């Protein structure tokens, strides 16, 4: 079952780039299977951050001295890199945010200001809390109504129901690209097309898509796209919100402060052009440079190769894990990315997770910030093994062995 | 046995395991053996919510002592609960209120009581002590009243 | 004129900790005098960040595996360190934000929800744009009115005028602790006392205070305090908002998403306790750990010693610079911190800044995000040399020489 | 002289400075020598706003050519402006529209045109070319009309 991608993918060299993958956990070589929560970082990214602080660090924009110019150039070049990473047509449409959660909240609190009583916003039943709560808060403020696309038993969106939810009152659709709890890859092109037919604007939550393969916002056809750097080998505290220029320009500003202004006076203040209008305050310069370096790293490995390698790994893991008696995979959509959520009959995820930990295998247990989805399936949570391109078949074998032992102990 | 003696006993008991998995094997056994809480008490009022696992705790005074029963939906949590109950059940309220529970640290399971673990255990220990404090205060009031 | 503090302060050892201070700019050893914009970072902070990524990196909270527990412990220990740094009574009152700008915006968008038409908010004429624009935006939303404390010719607040502005309609006062453009240290204790007498709540912008000496929020008596890590040797993208527990608990949440919730369902969502209620999304873990390491570094040098050392440096610089013909210091308050803003008669700040840059001296020129203050003084901007504890009298001498030469060229 | 020749001349002129300060000394001199813009044009309409320094620019057609005058509040910006004017003033509109201004890079002053410097210079160059494009288009229209 050794496939093409696995044969040519330079996994040994890649693993050597990740210092944390060389460590132990509870006295066993670490098997890290929680990349969907946050990925590990290659040395290249750590070096880019350190090199920035050691050579170029200064506040950006408006500085007349060489150091500040260098910092600004590096910072703006990083924006360009991120625009290219998602094939955004214009780097000025790329806004630095803390992460995916802030990206969604930014849209809700700026674009959302135009919503009024009776307007309808659509999310799905598989959304992360970060793509539910901002809309609930907005609905409370504005009188808009939240509608929910149901999820089928295999973890796919019910697209027939989605079509029925859409109507002339629909002003906004916000849907996850890839589910963090199930791994389902949603049909985002169709979702956008159908929403646009009724004149609604679409935001795609790309938190679990950008770490696993090529994303092309123009091909998707969405209006906004947001994701977190820390899940794709970048530093914590930096992510991206992309939006179409005309929409961004039509939006009121987000935070007030330095950078986002044109001219401030007590008689009246005017705002800067995009993207700066949405970037009040000193930005996370090292975060931007680190994230761009992560994007460069992943691009250099070839995103298609990453996607194929991970697909084979997931197929292998699914095949091996389902041999365990009583084990049930939650989320069996035909299109999936790198997530294996499971339960074992009669066993609590916390018990399984604890026993895996003691065997050096790091998985996440619980609701994965998707309580409504867990309720939909009538379960308290799952055990989730999530993969990145730096995982191996040996990691899967360790997971299978550790789970088998845990299940035996708990039976 | 006093609380201190019971703690010492548990520490002894765990000394024979030099492997993590054996230790957990034992905790799981203890969880299975835990006398269950009366079904009537397994409700919202007696629930201690955790993010990872839930705990139900019931306390009843018996003379100057307190009797505890408890349960959890996760077996490892249940095993750890059974140790807490073994140490604190049927002890004088005043002692429960004032005791330091050091055995969990000594048997190397302190992580389960981390404030960030959120399995309900830490809150349960706090709750047990609160029962002790309340009961002791009431006895004092009666003695002086 | 070699004073006590300068004699005992381990300046050589300190400078060796800062890699960037060893570099050149335009072929000259760098003299970095723009720390008020953003400070340089000691190796200790860079090491703390790298060590986190190499050994402890995982998403925090709710993880059952050892790595995630370690990350969580480090992250929450960092919060405790920052609470101690400003003598906050309770670390749960310490909220991680991107920086000072976000801290102020967070308060305006949450606490500010209770303001209504006719309520009065007071800021001063020396505020940074980040402490003006959020309040202008809030006033526009709420109908509240912005009042402005005038600034005296020497750069002090007009406290008589402040007293007159306060009345029973005053709901909020937001004032800078130390002015980034002038260096003025404001009488924050009096400002708080006077505001509290009329029942107003006070936010202090501490961006320029925490890098230069001890800050004690309890002694100040303010209700909220916010500052940026990148100005006090910490990484970019991480700062602190502190608030009194009862106020924080009374406030609606800020962003919606992961971490900030108790329970999410489409029927209704309940929120987590403080500080998590205000921390939606994956936090900037490395930022928190880096900032705590910066606080530890500065504390280890003794914050009182830092303050005294910098005071002597500023006095020396002021004395030497004012010997230059036509040079005028903007901001001559008796209480000042580490900022020397100046103009030379008939010369544009941009010209001076450019010529200093070519001589290896990094200063900032322009309005310093304080356009209303510049207007107040009838100037387009200033040249600002700002000091940190890692600057030396030699740095000052280089500044004086470079300015002298630039002035000669421009005459 | 063509635009290319004028650029070459400036590059030659700057080759004799091997020190930054000498180079700036020269730029400052040039700034002082710049024929000033007519006071009537030093208004909001002709202002190119920058964060660091302001620039005023006036363009007037003269046959198929364009005449430029300009000013700035900062003398170094003014010196750089004088170089731009020297290259583009009194040149055919079509050439202004199509030219590549490489001399700024070659004399090592490219940083002043950085999009992040915000001294008005970059916008000024853009503006000068726009005048060229507009004027050339108009001439074309007239020629064909
Ligand atoms: C006084 C003052 N307030 C607020 C800020 C804004 O801080 P930041 O840009 O880090 O959010 C600054 C820094 O520029 C400042 O000096
Ligand atoms: C699908 C999805 N959306 C949103 C988020 C929120 O991302 P962050 O916590 O980085 O803001 C996550 C990550 O937890 C996610 O998996």
Fold topology:
The complex is a heterotetramer, with two copies of chain A (411 residues) and two copies of chain B (145 residues).
Chain A: H1 4-8, H2 11-16, E1 24-25, E2 28-29, E3 31-32, H3 43-56, H4 66-85, E4 94-97, H5 100-110, E5 120-124, H6 133-142, E6 145-149, H7 159-165, E7 170-176, H8 188-197, E8 201-205, H9 217-220, E9 224-228, E10 239-243, H10 245-250, E11 261-263, E12 270-271, H11 285-301, H12 303-321, E13 327-330, E14 339-344, H13 349-358, E15 361-362, E16 364-366, H14 371-377, E17 382-386, H15 393-410
Parallel strand pairs in A: 3-15, 5-6, 5-7, 7-8, 8-9
Antiparallel strand pairs in A: 1-2, 4-10, 9-10, 11-12, 13-14, 14-17, 16-17
Helix pairs in contact in A: 3-11, 4-11, 12-15, 13-15
Chain B: H1 3-15, H2 20-33, E1 47-48, E2 55-62, E3 65-72, H3 75-88, E4 91-92, H4 93-98, H5 103-106, H6 121-144
Antiparallel strand pairs in B: 1-2, 2-3, 3-4
Helix pairs in contact in B: 1-3, 2-3, 3-6
The structure holds pyridoxal-5'-phosphate (2 copies).
Report on this structure.
- The complex is a heterotetramer, with two copies of chain A (411 residues) and two copies of chain B (145 residues).
- Chain A is an alpha/beta fold.
- Chain A has two domains: 4-32 and 302-410, Aspartate Aminotransferase, domain 1 (Alpha-Beta Complex), CATH 3.90.1150; 46-299, Type I PLP-dependent aspartate aminotransferase-like (Major domain) (Aspartate Aminotransferase, domain 2), CATH 3.40.640.10.
- Chain A is 40% helix and 16% strand.
- Chain A is built from 15 helices and 17 strands.
- In chain A, the strands form five sheets. Chain A has a seven-stranded mixed beta sheet, with helices on both faces. In chain A, strands 13-14-17-16 form a four-stranded antiparallel beta sheet, with helices on one face.
- In chain A, β8, α9 (217-220) and β9 form a beta-alpha-beta unit.
- In chain A, α4 (66-85) packs across α11 (285-301).
- The longest helix of chain A is centred in the N-terminal third of the chain and has 20 residues, at 66-85.
- The two termini of chain A are 31 Å apart.
- Chain B has a single domain, classed as Alpha-Beta Complex (Sufe protein. Chain: A).
- In chain B, 52% of the residues lie in helices and 14% in strands.
- Chain B has helices at residues 3-15, 20-33, 75-88, 93-98, 103-106, 121-144; strands at 47-48, 55-62, 65-72, 91-92.
- A four-stranded antiparallel beta sheet of chain B has the order 1-2-3-4.
- In chain B, a hairpin with a 2-residue loop joins β2 and β3 (65-72).
- In chain B, α1 packs across α3 (75-88), α2 packs across α3 and α3 runs parallel beside α6.
- The longest helix of chain B is centred in the C-terminal third of the chain and has 24 residues, at 121-144.
- Chains in contact: A-B, A-C, A-D, B-C, C-D.
- The interface between A and C is large, with 89 and 89 residues.
- Bound molecules: pyridoxal-5'-phosphate (2 copies).
- One pyridoxal-5'-phosphate sits between chains A (99-101, 128, 130-131, 176, 180, 205, 207-208, 228, 369) and C (258, 281-282).
């Amino acid at each position: 079952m050794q496939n093409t991608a696995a044969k040519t993918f330079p996994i040994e060299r890649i693993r050597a780039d990740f210092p944390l993958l060389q460590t132990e956990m509870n006295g066993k070589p670490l098997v890290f299977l929680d990349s969907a929560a946050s990925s590990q970082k290659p040395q290249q990214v750590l070096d880019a951050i350190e090199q920035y602080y050691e050579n170029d660090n200064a506040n950006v924009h408006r500085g007349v001295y060489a150091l500040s110019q260098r910092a600004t150039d590096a910072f703006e070049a990083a924006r360009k890199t991120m625009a290219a990473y998602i094939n955004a047509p214009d780097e000025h449409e790329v806004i630095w945010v803390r992460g995916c959660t802030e990206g969604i909240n930014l849209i809700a609190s700026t674009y959302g200001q135009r919503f009024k009583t009776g307007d309808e916003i659509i999310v799905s039943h598989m959304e992360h809390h970060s793509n539910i709560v901002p809309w609930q808060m907005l609905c409370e403020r504005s009188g808009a109504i939240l509608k929910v696309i149901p999820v089928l038993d295999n973890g796919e969106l019910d697209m027939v129901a989605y079509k029925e939810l859409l109507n002339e009152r629909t002003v906004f659709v916000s849907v996850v690209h890839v589910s963090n709890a199930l791994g389902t890859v949603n049909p985002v092109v169709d979702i956008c097309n159908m929403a646009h037919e009724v004149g609604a604007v679409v935001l795609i939550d790309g938190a679990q898509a950008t770490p696993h393969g090529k994303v092309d916002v123009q091909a998707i056809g969405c209006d906004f796209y947001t994701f977190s750097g820390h899940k794709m080998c970048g530093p914590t505290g930096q992510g991206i919100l992309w939006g179409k220029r005309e929409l961004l320009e039509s939006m009121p500003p987000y935070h007030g402060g330095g950078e986002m202004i044109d001219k401030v006076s007590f008689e009246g203040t005017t705002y800067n052009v995009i993207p700066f209008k949405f970037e009040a305050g000193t930005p996370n310069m090292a975060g931007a440079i680190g994230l761009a370096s992560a994007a460069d790293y992943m691009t250099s490995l070839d995103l298609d190769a990453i996607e194929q390698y991970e697909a084979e790994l997931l197929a292998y893991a699914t095949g091996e894990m389902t041999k365990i008696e009583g084990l049930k995979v939650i989320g069996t959509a035909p299109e999936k990315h790198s997530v294996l959520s499971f339960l074992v009959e009669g066993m609590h995820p916390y018990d399984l997770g604890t026993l895996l930990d003691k065997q050096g295998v790091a998985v996440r247990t619980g609701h994965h910030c998707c309580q409504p989805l867990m309720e939909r399936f009538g379960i308290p949570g799952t055990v989730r093994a999530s993969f990145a391109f730096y995982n191996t078949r040996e990691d899967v074998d360790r997971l299978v062995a550790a789970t088998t032992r845990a299940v035996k102990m708990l039976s | 046995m006093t609380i201190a003696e019971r703690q010492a006993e548990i520490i002894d008991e765990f000394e024979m395991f030099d492997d993590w998995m054996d230790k957990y094997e034992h905790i799981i056994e203890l969880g299975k053996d835990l006398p269950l809480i009366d079904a009537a008490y397994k409700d919202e009022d007696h629930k201690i919510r955790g993010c990872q696992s839930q705990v139900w705790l019931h306390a009843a005074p018996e003379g100057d002592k307190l009797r505890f029963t408890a349960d959890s939906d996760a077996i490892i949590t249940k095993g750890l609960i059974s140790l807490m109950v073994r140490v604190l059940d049927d002890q004088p309220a005043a002692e429960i209120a004032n005791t330091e529970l050091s055995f969990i640290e000594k048997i190397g399971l302190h992580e389960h009581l981390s404030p960030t673990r959120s399995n309900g255990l830490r809150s349960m220990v706090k709750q047990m002590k609160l029962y002790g404090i309340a009961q002791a205060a009431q006895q004092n009031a009666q003695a002086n009243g």
